[in-house]
Fold this protein.
Amino acid sequence: MYMIQKIDKISQVLKNDVIMWRRHFHRHPELSNQEKETSLRIQKILKSFNISFRKAAETGIVAEIKGKSRKIIGLRADMDALPVKEETGLDFASENQGIMHACGHDAHMAIALGVMAVFSKLQDLPFSLRCIFQPAEESVPCGAPRMIKEGVLEEMRYLIGFHVWVGLETGSFSVIKGPVMASADRFSILIRGKGGHGASPHKTIDPIVAASHFITQLQTIVSRKSDPQNPLVVSVGRVSGGDAFNVIPEQVEILGTVRTFDHKQNVLAERNIRKLLKGIEAGFGVKTHIDYEGFVPVTYNDPGLAEKVASILSSSFGNRSVITDEKPIMGSEDFSFYSKVIPCCYIKIGCGKSEYFHHSNKFTIDERCLDTGVRAISKILWGIGSLPS
Ligand code: NI
C-alpha cells in the first residue's frame, strides 16, 4: 500500500510537467520515421531525471531504470503524428503545416515520460523498468519490428502498451483477455484487359467492368464463405484505372485490406480472393495479378497478465472504472508484433467523450487522462514487477 501512495504523491508533483510535455509534443508533431525533434525532446526530459537511454531504429529511444534484479518489465509508447491538417483551435495547435497528433501519441509519450519520472524517484526497485519510445506506429513498414530487431525485448518479462481512448470516460479503462485488435493483411490486384474506344466495347477487353464484378463478388467471401461466428472484414480502399470518359483503359488497380482475429480466416480470405480472380479471368478474358501480404498480426493480451492488470486497476480506481468485457476491434496496431514474442497487455485509457474520434482533424483529449494515465500505468508496472518470479 505504501508504494501506491508514494506513486500518487510523486504523480501529483509531476502533473503539470506531464501536461506541458504533451502540449509541446502536440505543437511539434512529426510524421512516421521523421520523429527527430520529438526524439530529442524525449532525450532531454529523460536526462533531466537522470534516466539512462539508448537510441534505436534512428528516432526511437529505449530508456531504462535499473533495479535490484534483472527482471525487466517494459512499457511502450508510440511517437508519430499523422498527415492531418489540425482544426482544433487549441492554443497549442500544431505548428507543422499539415501534420497533427490526431491519434493521441503526444499523450502516450507524455504519460510514458511521467511514468519513468515517477520510477526515477523510487529507491531500490525490486525489478528493472524499460520504456520503448517507438517510431512509426502509423506507417507501413511500421516501427515495432525494427525495434524488436534492435533488441528492445531482450530479457524482458512482460510488456505493457496503452492507448488513450475517446468514447471512454476519463478515469475508466478497458482491459480484455486474448485478441484486442485484429490482424491486417494488404492486397494489391491488377486486372489487365485491352483498352480501346469507349464507343466500341466489343473490340476491347474492359478491365473496369471486370473489376466491378470482382469487387461485388469480393463481399461474398464474408457473407457466404466465412463462418459468421468468426469475424472477417474484407474492404477495398482504392480503385484506380482510366483517364478519360470515352476511353476504355488497359488496366485497373485495386488495393484493399483483410482484418481477422484468427489466422484461418486470413488463409480463407486469400484463397477465395485468388479463386474469384480466376473466375473473373475465365468470364471476362482479362489477366489478373495479385500481391497479398500479411502486414500486422493480431494484438493479443496474455490472459493471466490481463487479469492481473485489471485487478491492479480495480483496486486503485474501483471496479466500475475497469471494463473487462469489451469486444476487440477490427482496427490494428503494431504493438501486435511485441505480443507475438513475449506476454503483453494492451490497455485503453479513457480520455473523455468527444464527437471527434481518433484521426479526426478536430480530435482532442481530456487532459485529465494524462495524470490518470501516469498513475494507472505506474501502479500496473509496480504490481507486475512485484509479482513473485
Ligand atoms: Ni494511435
Remarks:
- The chain has two domains: 2-182+298-385, 183-296.
- The chain is about 35% helix and 25% strand.
- The longest helix spans residues 2-27.
